[in-house]
Amino acid sequence: MDHPYLLHIFSPTKYVSPFDINMAYEAQFDDVIPYCNVELDEVHGLTQDTIFSRSPEGVKRTGIFIGGREFGLSLEMLAAARAAMVPPFEVSVMADPSGAITTAAAMVALAGHWLGRAGGELGNSRVCVFGGTGPVGMCVALLAARAGAQAAIVSHQGLGAAQLVADRMTRDFGARIHGLDGSSNDAVAQWLGDIDIAFSAAKAGVRVVESAQLAAAGALKVLADANAVPPSGIEGVDANDRGKPLAVGDGSTAYALGALAIGDIKYRVHTSLLRQMYSAAEPVYLGCDEAYATACKVVAERD
Q1: What residues pair up with 6 in beta bridges, in sequence order?
Q2: Is 139 helix (H, G, I), strand (E, B) or coil?
Q3: Which residues have C-beta within 8 Å of that of residue 123, sequence separation ≥ 6?
């Protein structure tokens, strides 16, 4: 008897994202089983129901995907699932709430690559993340900080809101992250001139950086905008941009990376991680670091 490849999706939200279900079938899982409104303390029991109900061969063809919309909660659920394993009853687990982790990994890997073309290094760069209090932005800031960058979260609600999230991430993940005031154009102008990479992970259709601000920011070398809904988050960055030179301050140019370039890498990373789960001889646990390593590999292969 054949043992089907099964992927169980645990989500704390009302619905499991159709995107996650489609991606799982694209990765060749035979069946995808969604679980909605899952709470953190329920992950242990659900995981053990998953692992103990299959034969040793069936366990090797079983995976758990953590969805939802909250970055920190998804990583807690990943850790809870891993803690519930009882080897040899152990399955692979991946966390990617609303695609935030794979999107962030694609953004940072791409930006780091193009920064290298500009003669810089991610580990020695100054990075800001507009929309940094959301799941994609939080993960971008974390990955950049872990790579050695001086990473800062920007909030349109002001410095206090940004610093609150930055302090929580510093405490929870041990990566030094700062907050910056994004409450007005004047506030952004106070510090944008010192930034090497500007990421926009802000709400779709919301402009966070104007061309006038870019014209006064000569240090900028890379602009990465994940927003595919007009208007762009960063003025002048088009969804199709894949390293287009964009004028900034002091007669300099920065490389522009649009949503479709980022989305192409994100899709490849997401698919690659799911296929790792599908084919792994031993269980794998896939979160931020694994997604970023895969993204760097994908970007290097496409260069």
Answers
A1: 31, 62
A2: helix
A3: 147, 148, 149
pLDDT digits (tens, 9 = 90+) for 201-231: 999 889 999 999 999 999 999 999 999 999 9
69 and 172, same domain (yes or no): no
Look at residue 283 and tell me if it is in a domain: yes
DSSP state of 216: T
User: Is residue 1 in a domain?
Assistant: no
Residue 14 phi, psi dihedral angles, 5° rounding: -65, -35
pLDDT digits (tens, 9 = 90+) for 227-251: 999 999 999 999 999 999 999 998 9
pTM of the model: 0.96
Residues 75 and 207 in one domain: no
pLDDT of residue 1: 47
Contact predicate 262/72, CB 8 Å: no
The domain total for the chain is: 2
Query: Which residue type occupies 124?
Result: N
Q: Give yes or no: residues 155 and 92 share one domain.
A: no
Q: Are residues 211 and 113 in the same domain?
A: yes
As given in the structure block, the two tokens for residue 133 are 């209090």
Q: Verify that 88 and 136 share a domain, yes or no.
A: no
Q: Are residues 254 and 175 in the same domain?
A: yes
Give the range of the structural domain holding residue 10, as residue numbers without chain letter. 6-99+266-302
> How high is the mean pLDDT in each 10-residue block of the chain (303 residues)?
89 94 94 97 98 90 96 97 96 96 98 97 97 96 98 96 96 95 94 97 92 94 96 96 95 96 96 94 96 97 82
Q: Which residues touch 258 (CB under 8 Å, ≥6 apart)?
A: 225, 228, 232, 237, 238, 239, 240, 241, 242
Q: Does residue 228 share a domain with residue 246?
A: yes
Helix ranges restricted to H, 147-205: 159-173, 185-189
